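Lab meeting prep.
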Amino acid sequence: MNKRKILLTALVVIVLGALVYLQVRTWRKFDWQSFKAETEDVNVGLIALGVGIIYFDYYLRALRWKILLRPVCDVKTSRLIAPTMIGFTALALLGRPGEFIRPFLIARKENLTMSSQLAVWVVERLFDVGAFAVIMAINVLISPGLRDLPGFAGGVKRKIGMFHLSSFQLFEVFAFGLLLAVLVGALFAILIRRNPEGTARLMERIFGKISPRLGKGLSHRVHTFGQGLDTIHDFSSFLQISGLSVALWLLIGATYYCVTHAYGDMGPHMTLSSALLLTGASVAGGTLQLPVVGGGSQLATIGTMVGVFQFPKELAISCGMMLWLVTFMSVIPLGLILAHFEHVSLRKLRDESHVEEEKALEEG
């Protein structure tokens, strides 16, 4: 391991320790002996199963990308696995600056344009958001057991306009909102697919009145999105991509189920529905990121385990950190090995992909 990797690992450990310390400070009382005991008693087999599920998730992501590439080239899923895992390794180590390494690597490996792969990436994100929103919403609406969770049962009602809603009822309103947002997004996507040029001009005309730069930027992104939608060349592909997207997020929920059941004091209280709720909290918290290690996802997961499930603080922190390691950081060892065999440097890829991204947006 070279000095740069040692420094990066040390930075991850320091920031992770800082996050734990700040969380512990907010509680004032924390039993480190209990935290140690909870962590030492974890079921290693279930943790390994969780890592295996996450690795299989990367295979499904490569398969989904292959389907999206059908209109332009016929590529084997196996050729996309290395770029996929290297890309997620870059995201884990570099944060948002590593986001576009995956489409850049695929474009370079398959002799495609960066703009075409950015379009695929945009459509992939659309399906991710849609599938995640639908799963979370249905989970809240059809799982009566969630209503009985300690943090929801007998909760104080809050006044929202003319209505007084409990904490769980607020979740139900949010679930309906998610379904509505997915519907609106789908209708907007249909509009763009039918007339991408016209929709792009409309966005530029409307938002250009606020800021010419904003209008032009939105126009470019709508145009790129329209290009991406061309990757769905028939209804069969749409169903395959939708099915894979739902499977991806259900498997992530299954990973949360495995990791929480690795803790003897937590497993008996965690159903798959509860694990999916915890997954939703993690993703929502992930929108607030710190460089390199994120932060929002871990803290949201820990906060939900304490506030909603009312697990002990020591157990919540141990499990929250383990979930982060399994779902987000476990790709790093294999990703770095694949990067070595592919003869690529993450730092150089970050810079090159950023340049190509800017070029693609300008051309759009």
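Slide two material, second protein:
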Amino acid sequence: MKQHLKHILALLLLGVQSTTAKAANHIAEYRLDEQTVYAIPVSRSRVTTISFPGPISAIDAANVTSDPKIPGLFQIAHTKGSYFLSVRALVERATTNINIRWNKKTYVIELIESSSPLYSVIFQDDTDADIRPASAGVTPSRLMALLDKAKAYPLLKEYHADAVAQVEYMNSRNNPRVLDYEDYEVQLDEVFRFNPEDTLIFRILLRNKTNQPIQYRPDGFSLRVGERTYPQSISDASGTIPPNGEAPAYFAVTGTPNGGRNNLSLKNDFTVLLDRVETNAPPQPAQPESKPSQ
């Protein structure tokens, strides 16, 4: 059994190494949405500059300092009335959030210490022109490698921790978010974020509350965050939820629909939509109601 596991891990690592993407683009540009938590990776040895469309009214932050002599997780520099602020991490694996007040709205940014930082983050107002597309796309083979890596995460974490050191991970099985669609439910169990590829991978559990099988498009997942919807980039799903049964599924979201970066934090309230296949009606994504888990 051990030899079999080692063989699987060796194949996975070989696949990940053989499909390693080019260095991530260090400049991100995307639209402002007050209902989204933005994850911004920053370095201890580099400076990340975050720019807004106009003068920043206020900044609220925890565990940050503007004086390098005062302890903190992050160092921040901002001049009152300016359009931008600069941030640097001071502690390995540190995380915190800063809330930025601009144009009478509050925008939430999650800072994450990372060895793959962004150097410049440019926020555009929602009325501005389309954001600049990402400089390079993520190939299907790379997405397959990320999906395999997410599935093997527990084994990789135990035997090859360096292979997943930069993967952001959230396990919510003990207190999952459950979306109720009347005759079926979607339960969010695990979320992975691969920052260089700007890709989120979800492990979900689909639960049928009827005595009839429920059909859905296995390639029809999408993710809603605030008022924005992101179509899937890859999935691994059967397309069927058995009667009074459960079915696991994986799907990924990469970037934004127009080719930019989404930089979505794992701390967002995610809503999963799937295309239900009806016998006598065209497939339509249902609109869920959130409910606490039992």
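Talking points for slide two:
The mean pLDDT is 84.
The radius of gyration is 20 Å.
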